[in-house]
Amino acid sequence: MKMIINDPRYSALPKLSEKKQAFNAYKSQHEKEEKEETRLRAKEAKEKLQSFLEQHEKMTSTTRYRKAEQMFGEQEVWSVVPERDRKEIYDDVLFFLAKKEKEQAKQLRKRNVQALKNILDNMSNVSFQTTWSEAQQYLMDNPMFAEDEELQNMDKEDALICFEEHIRALEKDETEEKEKSRMRERRQQRKNRESFQIFLDELHETGQLHSMSTWMELYPSVSTDNRFANMLGQTGSTPLDLFKFYVEDLKARFHDEKKIIKDILKDRNFSVEVNTTFEDFAHIISFDKRAATLDAGNIKLTFNSLLEKAEARERERGKEEARKFRRKEAAFKSMLKQAAPPLELDSNWEENECQHYHFKGKKHSKKSKKHRKHSQSPTPAEWKRKKVPDISTWDITGAMEKTSETEEENHQHRSQKRKKRNHSESGSEGSSSGDSGSSYTPAFHVGLCGSELLFALSSFLCRT
């Protein structure tokens, strides 16, 4: 009251109660302001201490509180903050520094790793086969690495990991390069095979290569071409393999092309005989458009096949003619054996050509064979009384046919008889042979001229 009673503003409030109320309000407001100011000063002191500790070079996340108090206890920034608050701030600072150091270490590690990678990438003497000890020596000799202290202080484990990653990258590049090289080589080899296949097609079109070709025959022509030389030494199919595959493909077309050739021959009404030459055969084939796609070797094989069939037919025809001739010869022999009068050893053809009478013998049954009387040749006197027929009137055709039929019947009869006979069949064989000789009397055959008759007769007389 003593300080404000003489102030003119004191009388502004007439009542004492109002003055007291205004004083209390002022006092309360002033206390609040002082507390706020104190709080702000304490906060500012804490912030300064925290900033001071966080930025001080000697502070680390491992620095203890006692050591910090020894270092900063005499400084106002440290002492102005109460100890309780200092410890809380110090703990916060340690947490902040630990986080900061961790982030810095992470950034530094990242920077060192990238720098080391750049150095390794620029070192041409480091390959995927380089060892870690060799790489360390190369790094010490590198000026960029030697001038960088942070790189030299880099963690060895991080450096080793970086080196291993670099080696793996080099190995991957090497593998990819080898794979690319392999693919290029395979592509080139495939192109070489395709070129050689085209070369074989050219040889086939010119007629040098066909289904009957051999490698030894074709080698002189093949070996001089560059497409053959490009195939040498490469993996996969060899030129010989491709040649064999090509020839096998041509041979596989044989049956289809053989049908085409037969159709062409049928359309041209031409057949291959024994005396047909390949030139004539090829000449006939060449006129047809379908022959343009035929393989020369298959044409030759088809000709050989048809020629073999023609020769087989000719051999069968010859065998048939020989069988016919043997039948005629057998008929002629039977006629001579039953000649009346019988022939003598000193008989000649001119005297006996038309002096014998021949007749068809009657076939006797098997039951009457034992009771059959053997015919006797007439005496010369009786023969003179007989009328001698002309040889031109003999039933030669009937005799030949009769001979053939009787021979077949006797052959069947003997076959059945062999199956039924027992150990005492020696006697029955003689009777069977007798039946075959006396079951019929063959006559002369048709188609023998004078020279043929003379030859057959002379052959028979020589054998008898």
* CA(first)-CA(last) distance: 194 Å
Which percent band covers the strand fraction? under 5%
Helix segment tally: 19
- The helix-and-strand class reads mainly alpha
- Radius of gyration, taken over Cα atoms and rounded to an integer in Å: 66 Å
3D shape: rod-shaped
Mean pLDDT over the residues: 76
Largest sheet: none
Overview of this structure, please?
The chain is an all-alpha fold. It has a domain at 8-106. The chain contains 19 helices and no strands. Helix 1 (16-55) packs parallel to helix 4 (83-121), helix 14 (296-337) packs across helix 17 and helix 14 (296-337) packs across helix 19. The longest helix is centred in the middle third of the chain and has 50 residues, at 156-205. 14% of the residues are buried. The model is unreliable at 356-404 and 422-464 (pLDDT under 50). It comes from Engystomops pustulosus. Residues 425-439 have a biased composition (Low complexity).
Q: In a nutshell, what does this entry contain?
A:
With 464 residues, the chain is mainly alpha-helical. The protein has helices spanning 16-55, 65-72, 76-79, 83-121, 132-140, 143-147, 149-152, 156-205, 215-222, 226-231, 239-252, 254-267, 278-286, 296-337, 349-352, 380-385, 396-420, 426-438, 450-463. It is found in: Nucleus speckle.
Q: Which terms would index this structure?
A:
464 residues; mainly alpha; 19 helices; 68% helix; disordered C terminus; nucleus; phosphoprotein; coiled coil
